[in-house]
Amino acid sequence: MPENLIFENIGKRPLPLSKKSNKEVRLAQIFKVALRIIHDQGYYATSLNDIAKAAGLTKAGLYHYISSKEDLLYAIMNFGMDLVDSDVLEPASKVIDPQERLRILVKAYANLIMEEWQAITVIINETNGLTAARRQNIRKRRQVFYQFVYETIQQIKDETDVKVLDVGVTTLSFVGCLVWMAYWYRPDGRLTKEQITDQIMGLLVDRMVGLGAPAELVIESRTVA
Amino acid sequence: MPENLIFENIGKRPLPLSKKSNKEVRLAQIFKVALRIIHDQGYYATSLNDIAKAAGLTKAGLYHYISSKEDLLYAIMNFGMDLVDSDVLEPASKVIDPQERLRILVKAYANLIMEEWQAITVIINETNGLTAARRQNIRKRRQVFYQFVYETIQQIKDETDVKVLDVGVTTLSFVGCLVWMAYWYRPDGRLTKEQITDQIMGLLVDRMVGLGAPAELVIESRTVA
DNA sequence: AAAATTCTACCGACCGGTCGGTTGGCATTT
DNA sequence: AAATGCCAACCGACCGGTCGGTAGAATTTT
């Protein structure tokens, strides 16, 4: 069952008190089902009754776990952003060589997207369900990611003889291509995750940024029946 | 005033009868203002009162011009799609050489996006405001575009010695990069439209697909203060 | 040319229905 | 007995959409 896995490990974090995990586990289930419905129907088209019913309780019961519809959306988005931080930015920022850093970033982000594409699309699509202040917070967190990519590409341009086009446009297109995966990737698709990662790595890192040696550019596609 | 220009020439088309254009002109104004508000707030967060007020009438008056909220959205989306057909697909499909065809397509589509980025984002974001049948129609129209790009890239791979990676992934990334422009392009940005088009052409056609001669790959970015 | 008629563009008032959110209370667990 | 987990019932606000009507321009009839 290729379900998304964002929230299901929440209860396993070391908790302040021993068996308080019940509520957090239930909350994680609610987040998970809410994410799926919001992804499928859109935030505004999803009522709290929809979410409650899918989670196996009533709207009033749901309010035992959340404080408002917007809080729920905001929490879901921040959980997704936390994953980007922990799974992509943190590992990549430990790599000193900018070329290697970029490859690690692509690999980690592609993996994350293919695991959590629903969360990524919700983060992109549903920001106008948030109040202005919270929308701004989410934008800031996204900006951090762009900045990281920008600086890495700029460093490659400055410190190596790789020929990079305009760093701004390259960064936007680079991240755009990655994010766009969340719109087209599906677990039952033609290629395996590894094949897709290889292709994206070739398209973005080797070609678009320009890290590929001419020899590497000749890599043929590995299509599958 | 860098406003979008989708609908303002509608009244100028040769009309069946002489002075019937008034209603169509007004309708075009309504579409234009509705597009702006729906882009800014999202479809569900935009009430018909919002649109009516911005168009200078009441909700009941608005219903003199539209038949339902969903019809309005559907009409806006189809107008945008019509533009893609007439401004991008039609000119490009007349070019026989696939490499040149791809360049024409990128140039035309980049121009369209920079002129009508609000319409493009609405088409992408608000499809779930449509009934299933209409949503399917919009998807089909998008699919036609993907198919056109796919076949062009496939033709390049088959008929030339250009080394193309997996055509499917390349197509999705290629179109994704273009569409993504609608999310980041703003008229008051750092680069001119021509500079952006040059950069996108270099990133997508020369590099990602692989049409650039090694010499062309060395083109430096033309950044502006 | 005047009068009668029709049509266009529009609005105030209202309707059924749904939404997010609240309240008070009832079992079950601790 | 205290806390937890949950729900039936309810509320005010707002939504998309409708309806009856009207001011005035355009058209037709006389």
Q: Counting H and I runs of at least 4 residues, what is the number of helices of chain A?
A: 8
Class based on secondary structure composition and strand pairing of chain A: mainly alpha
The multimeric state of the shown protein is homodimer
Q: What is the molecular shape of chain A?
A: elongated
Descriptive labels:
homodimer, mainly alpha, 225 residues, DNA-binding, 8 helices
Secondary-structure map:
2 copies of one chain form a homodimer.
Chain A: H1 21-41, H2 48-55, H3 59-62, H4 69-93, H5 98-125, H6 132-159, H7 167-184, H8 193-209
Helix pairs in contact in A: 1-2, 1-5, 4-5, 4-6, 5-6, 5-7, 5-8, 6-7, 7-8
The structure holds a DNA duplex (30 and 30 nucleotides).
Describe the protein in words:
Chain A is mainly alpha-helical and 225 residues long. Helix content of chain A is 66%, strand content 0%. Chain A contains 8 helices and no strands. In chain A, helix 4 packs antiparallel against helix 5, helix 5 packs across helix 7 and helix 5 packs across helix 8 (193-209). Chain A is elongated, with a radius of gyration of 20 Å. The model of chain A is unreliable at 1-20 and 215-225 (pLDDT under 50). The interface between A and B is large, with 45 and 45 residues. Chain A binds a DNA duplex (30 and 30 nucleotides) through helix 1 and helix 3.
